[in-house]
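Same chain as my last thread, 335 residues:
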Amino acid sequence: MISLDNIDFVGTELNRPECVLTHNSGLLFAADWTENGGVSIIKTDGTVQHLLSKDTSFEVRPNGIAVEQDGTFLLAHLGAETGGVFRLHPDGSLEDVLTELDGAPLPPSNYIHIDGHNRIWVTISTRHVPRAAAYRGDVSDGFVVLIDPSGARIVADDLGYTNECLVHPDGKRLFVNETFARKLSSFDIDAKGNLSNKKTICEFGPGTFPDGMTFDVAGGIWITSIVSNRVIRVTEDGQQDILIEDVDADHLANVEAAFKRAEMGRPHLDRAHSRKLKNISSLAFGGADLKTAYLGCLLGDQIGRFQSPHSGVKPVHWNAPLTRLQSFLSPPTPQ
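reply #2:
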């Protein structure tokens, strides 16, 4: 186990930094849930700049984020009733990427991932509105959308609250967390991006609701669990090792009881009953040796940080030049 005493924090005054990404420059990027949402950028000196949408006609609510090679960002919009994918430019302008599919508005959108072929994978946790109606183990109406040069289409359906997804380092498989089905699944990816051969890598027991994921170079899959503030390392044969946990036992028992009664709702997620962590939801490896693990969260205003025994796999955007972002990060010197 990794001691909670070995976890410190970076960044200040973040707003629901649910998703965190790293870059070889040392920059950290986190989702920003303010009134005109966007991305919080944490610099190496710990200072923060907020790149927010300037579109006053639409309030974007970024849950998952992805950084493109030029320093623009893709946002998965988790609206109250509708979702979509939007591109946030460094000048604050907001561009629609995908808001409808098969003639219907896209439901609230959870996560977004750009793979090594520049394909965009988007997860929709549920078709239920409100989403809390799907916080139960018997609802399986989540799906995965692929956006590629041929357009946008559903490539996996009937999932148990689809959360983060990630293409494996071998490029041949997509891994998906099904939060309220409490399992980690994988699909084979063919040359056209179609998914098949769904497999259950592992199922999680009481107290674990898998949300975020990433890979390490030794073949481990790192999972973050909401509610229990667990970080779990899973091997490809499904073995699990809980590395971090931070939760009040009575609170966790109450959540479990509500889950089993199919009565779990927002109150079970909107308060942190823990010593240090605030409902962790995302993990990304950074630092020169990719052994610094950063934790996004739903309820805190900082990013957690600890040292991992394993190096992470470099994300696709690790060496992105971020050319368009530079002017935002380095504003002109006042005359």
